[in-house]
Amino acid sequence: MGARYGIYFQEEVHTVVTLAPKKIAFDRILVPSDFSDLSMCALEYAKSIARCYGSQILLEHVSQLPSGYAPSEMPWVELDVTLEVMRQGERRLEEHDAQLRAEGFAVQTILSSGNLQDEVIATAHDQKPDLMVLGTHAVKGVVRLFCGSDAEALLRRVDCPVLVVGPKVRQMKQSVWSLRDVLCASDLNPGSARTPAFACALAEDHHAAFTLLHIENPARERHSQPLDPEPFQNALARIMSADQRLSGCDPMKSLQTVVSRKEPSSEIVGLARERDSDLIVMGAHSAAEKADHLLRGVIPSVLAEAICPLLLLHHP
Question: Does the residue 171 lie in any domain?
Fold first, then answer.
């Protein structure tokens, strides 16, 4: 693991606007950033959410050697390059810290050096954020968090929800996060019941329309047992009775089942566009769930095409 640095600020915050108390709390928001345009778009979403919930923003930058640079036989050159990369990252963090605090946010900046995935996971474990917000695209930067084993490790080892801003997501125009329509896609597996319960409570916080989407593929259903929704409903009831934040929610009232031979991702993205949804919520299984392997499953396709952010909740 690489070097880790933290910069802490305890100044009074007085300009952030917060709304009424909510069922869901996002007190601390971790924002990994490589300072790319997409990372800045993700930061705007984090700022909007922070204004809504009165959150502290944890802005992290992981400094790494330039791609392809590995002067193993000249360790002193490698050290000079590493120090310069760290200094550049520190300067950018200082600039963003000053801007964020000028806007009234509580901020903690974190400068790390090493493997991107390892450092972000370590920060999440150390700081215990309530939400992570990051941008991802198909070329560089934070995208490495969503490629191959990096992605599986992140979702398997980070407990907090992850809000992902994909390449086609609309720019955040709201000063304070406000949801009008929330779409939650679920396989109605009892083990994933917490995801729609959380999504429904989040929608209620914002008085937003909520849809629980289940997609059936007739070709697949012929080779498997018919779906019995009762175990899912029972699991949902247990979760909501055990967690007072989720009481009063009933995602099953908003269940919409779509029978389609298309890829589920097409149906999810299409319905979100049709409804002009502000948020798609999905569960992400661990790597042991081969059918839901991140790279081979639905999530990457939704990320690539969705015009609204995707909120991922980890399933143990």
Answer: no
